[in-house]
Design goal:
flat, pyridoxal phosphate binding, about 0% strand, mainly alpha
Amino acid sequence: NGIAHRRWLCQSNPELTALLTELIGGGFVYDANELLKLREFKDDEKVLEKLREIKTHNKEHFAALVKKIPA
C-alpha cells in the first residue's frame, strides 16, 4: 500500500504544501494529477529559489534533530 501523497506532503512538509497551494491551488491534495500544473513553473527562478529555500530549511531542521539524539 504505502502512504498517500497527501498525507506525506501535507503532514511532513507544510512549507512545500503552502508553496504548492499558492502556485497551483489545493486540488493536488486530492488529485495527484494536479501536480502536473507545476510544469509551468519549471523555469521560474523565483519559484525555484523558494524551493531551494524550503529544501535548505528542511535539511537544517533535520540536522538539528539528529544532533539531539544521544550518542
